[in-house]
Amino acid sequence: MIHMLKNIRQIFARRFDDAYFNAAVSVAASMCNSETFSAYKCRHYGQSIALCGAGPSLSEYKPIEGAIHIALNRALMRKEIKFDYFIADDWEGIRFFQDTLLKYPCEKFFGHQIGCEYIRQIPESFRIDSNAKRYYTDSYMLGGHKSRFICDIDKMAIGNFPNIALSAMQIVLFMRPSKIYLVGCDASSNGHFFDKSPDEPQMLKKEMQQFLSGDQTIQKWLELKSFIEAFYPDIEVISINPVGLKGLFHDVYQ
User: Fold this and answer.
1) Rounded distance, CA 248 to CA 165, Å?
2) How far is the C-alpha of 222 from the C-alpha of 231, rounded, in Å?
3) Phi, psi angle pair for 62, to nearest 5°
4) Burial level of 223, CB count in 10 A (0-12/13-18/19+)?
5) 85 vs 75: CA distance, rounded Å
6) pLDDT in tens, 108-140
């Protein structure tokens, strides 16, 4: 009986510790994201933004004149495009070109994924050296893709998803452009336009490609479409040279 009571006390103690930690992280996320994103609300109202993922179709993209360009992960390696912003939240996806990223002249956002393994978090020292702004993403993806899209990214953690383009879209929508061009967001298992990543284990790369192109990811894109129609009906989303997202938004081929 005493042993049972001891186990019960230990269970409740762990739950209390977890609840306390989660509450503290939620406060930290709110404060950090407020500091990072408050100045970006409606910053690009009425303009066009091209959100560039690193899918193979990025190689076919002809830069749209006058559009604000945002690079996700290794899309920054596309030298023909002058990027205005860079977004990443996974060290494994950017460390192999960290020297280029460190020097690249654009505004940078580095995400901190709540609950993610340390090895995947972008080092705080590198963020500081890169002069990048920090933001939090939630932990619900760890429970089976349960994250939700949010409007108030300046008040709470951004919804975290298996494809960073889904997370980054919440930042882009917050900037209130009139048009969003999805470029290189292929949602397929065909790799990247630029696969030179010597430090990335081939097995990990294969597993990640399968993960990113799964049915759950496509389902989240469908959920994003409904979210945009409900909260940002005045923003037009256009897929450039679409692959996995064909037929989901307005398709344009170059």
Assistant:
1) 15
2) 14
3) -100, 115
4) middle
5) 11
6) 999 999 888 889 999 999 999 999 999 999 876
* 133 and 77 Cβ atoms separated by less than 8 Å: no
Can you list the pairs that 104-108 forms with residues at least 24 positions away whose Cβ atoms lie under 8 Å? 104/76, 106/71, 107/133, 108/132, 108/133
Q: What is the DSSP string of 13-31?
A: HHHHHHHHHHHHHHHHHHH
For 82, the enclosing helix (H) or strand (E) is none
What percent of the chain clears pLDDT 70, i.e. is strictly above it? Answer: 77
Burial of 183 (0-12, 13-18, 19+ CB in 10 A): buried
pLDDT at position 170:
98
